[in-house]
Design a protein that fits this description.
The chain is mostly helical. Helices cover 75% and strands 0% of the residues. The mean pLDDT is 93.
């Protein structure tokens, strides 16, 4: 399970890196696009090397899913066998669902059933708004994403992410750079999650599913603002830093 978890963290890091590189290319006027991780997989899957990367990422996403699912089912941290709270089990289950869907998307792309990128957020929100109390459910989704934004911000400014790492095995130089990269990466995620939460809140408040957006929509929003090139470049660089941080976790995280 430790090996699966570390491979899963590598896949997590590479997927964020792909999104970041495409966004930076867009900001610099060198092609690229504002897309989410599934869209990034679809973008690179058109050539042989890209397909190999997607195959590896599909396996990595599957490993990450198994890791988080195991934690959710056992209700214990794998590294210490310490019991975790019900909320943390729900969080682990949510992460398993996210990476399970990414694994399924990667497989669909590889077998030629990936389809267009579409807008999953708008489609899902439109369906939920049609349910009884659907507006409040979407509000709850917005609140959950907003909490994730605050959680990333808090971890970034306090450096709490270091608690999960084997810092005793790091040299002073590696620890210093890990701290810097982790802070930048978590703050970038906080910005993106904050924007996504706002989009879902507006969709619920205005009863308009078209206003719901995901990672791709958040990056496009930044690109269209005043000084959009700079804003998109900064946030994309932050997401790239988070991808690097995931690779550092793959080496040093307690699992």
């Amino acid at each position: 399970m430790e090996k699966l978890a570390r491979f899963g963290l590598v896949a997590q890091g590479v997927s964020y890196g792909l999104v970041a590189v495409l966004a930076i290319e867009l900001a610099l006027g060198q092609g690229g696009k504002a897309t989410d991780r599934e869209g990034a997989l679809r973008t690179i899957a058109h050539d042989p090397l890209g397909r190999l990367i997607v195959i590896a990422l599909a396996a990595g996403f599957g490993c990450y899913t198994l890791w988080r699912l195991t934690e959710a089912v056992l209700g214990r941290k794998l590294e210490s066998r310490e019991k975790v709270s019900a909320w943390k089990r729900v969080g682990a289950l949510g992460k398993a669902a996210i990476y399970g869907s990414l694994c399924a998307a990667a497989v669909s792309i590889l077998i030629g059933e990936g389809g267009g990128s579409g807008n999953k957020e708008k489609e899902a929100t439109a369906g939920i708004l049609g349910w009884p109390a659907g507006r409040w459910i979407v509000m709850g989704i917005a609140a959950a994403i907003g909490i994730a934004a605050l959680w990333n911000f808090w971890r970034g400014v306090t450096g709490r992410f270091l608690k999960q790492l084997k810092t005793g095995e790091m040299s002073p130089r590696v620890r210093t750079w890990t701290t810097r990269i982790g802070v930048v990466g978590h703050l970038a995620r906080a910005v993106v999650f904050g924007l996504i939460a706002w989009f879902f809140f507006k969709a619920a408040a205005d009863y308009d599913a078209k206003k719901a957006r995901g990672l791709d929509g958040a990056l496009r929003k930044l690109a269209n603002e005043t000084y959009g090139t700079w804003l998109l470049s900064i946030v994309a660089a932050g997401l790239f830093a988070y991808g690097v941080f995931c690779l550092i976790q793959a080496r040093y995280r307690e699992i």
